[in-house]
Amino acid sequence: MWMFEEMVEHKGIEKKLSEVFNETHENVKYLPGVELPSNIKAEPDLKKAVEAADIYVWVLPHQFVPKIVSSMGPIKPGAVSVSLIKGGLELEGGKLGLCSDLLRKLLGHSVSVLMGANVANEMATDQFCEATLGCREIEHQAMLLKLFNCLTFHVQAVDDIAAVELCGALKNVVALGAGFCDGLEFGGNTKAAIIRIGLAEMMDFIRFFYPEAKDATFFESCGVADLITTCFGGRNRKCAEAFIRGKGAKTWTDVEKELLNGQKLQGTLTAEELWPVMKQHDLFGRLPLFTMIYQIAFEGKAADCIVKLPANNALCANMLRGSSAASGAGSMCAITPRCCCCLASSLLQDEQQVIATQ
Predict the structure, then answer these.
(1) CA atoms of 51 and 201, how far apart (whole Å)
(2) Taking Cα atoms as reference points, which of 44, 36, 30 lies closest to residue 2?
(3) CB half-sphere exposure, 284, CA atoms < 13 A
(4) Fewer beta carbons within 10 angstroms: which end of the chain, N or C?
């Protein structure tokens, strides 16, 4: 495992993080108190760590991807990658580019994605959780499921890569809104509303650029489950709450340094990446929550405006199963409570039909 080298203090002595890890099997800076399996070795030399690898698993802030790839050396023919990276959205000729697209371009091989409700410290203690593998190639699905799926980490494979990856990125933006609510000391009803609206806007945004996205993907771990977990825990919600409680005295950089111990905040980066995309495609009126979160985070808008969103009266007929085939790229819609019930009923009916035919 490649580990970015840094100096840490361990038992009163300053040492390299990789050396401490290899001696103790504990990441004393980022995951203290958890002993990891002895077969995991930290290697600070990137080329040595990735040499002759068959499967590359990417877990790092997206802004470092180009530099890391350029420093890796030769890639083994036939290798594949799995990205756990959130964010890295950019427009290329009017088309939305994903971090997995960038990796695919730079590496020249198949790149799948793995997203889900996976808080690190809970996973490290073998608490049960799930994840969603976005992978198009059937033969790679089988191999990667054997690699990742286990008793305490259930992995479901789908071929909807873009929706899986975008859910992983966009939920961090919604989590900022949830954190704003906590900083304002709003209750559970308000946060539940923000989560519901956030899910609706995630689905709308994804369908705008990827109309083929499947309804069922949003009900996988990468969708609603990850959204709920991130809005009640995780670094984005925590930092957003601290940002609001600071009442303008702390910048996002200040909050990040104070609370994350060297880790990076992804929700703010993704919100900044979304803004020009939304501007170019005139999506502000269609995504009022995403718009408001950005304005509170970066333009000084009053935090309590998070509950003063303009109405979004777009039709929701396209949210039902099969709508993607009937609508072209660029169609969008909103979800009402009734629409959610209809969608759930539609999915349940489909599931019952499948069971009946087996």
Answers:
(1) 42
(2) 44
(3) 9
(4) C
In this structure, what are the phi and psi dihedrals at residue 83, rounded to the nearest 5 degrees?
Answer: -105, 130
Three-class DSSP category at 169: helix
Closest CA to 2 of 62, 63, 64, 68: 68
Handedness of CA 86, 88, 91, 97 (dihedral sign): negative
What residues have CB less than 8 Å from 243, skipping those under 6 apart? Answer: 179, 180, 183, 250, 252, 255, 297
Q: How far apart are the first and last CA of the chain?
A: 43
- Give Cα separations from 217 to 41, 132, 223 (angstroms): 35, 9, 7
Beta bridge partners, 130, equal: 154
Q: pLDDT of 40-66, one tens digit each?
A: 999 999 999 999 999 999 999 888 999
Is the alpha carbon torsion for 57, 61, 67, 71 positive or negative? negative
User: How confident is the model over 132-154, as pLDDT tens digits?
Assistant: 999 999 999 999 999 999 999 99
Calpha distance 9→261 (Å, rounded)? 13
Alpha helices in the chain (DSSP H): 17-24, 46-50, 65-70, 99-107, 120-124, 138-148, 161-183, 188-209, 226-232, 235-245, 252-259, 267-280, 288-298, 323-326, 337-357
Cα angle value 175/180/186 (rounded, 5°)? 110
pTM: 0.85
Assess contact for 211 and 96: CB atoms under 8 A. no
Residues 6+ apart with CB under 8 A from 145: 133, 155, 157
**Could you give the 3-state DSSP secondary structure of residue 56?**
strand
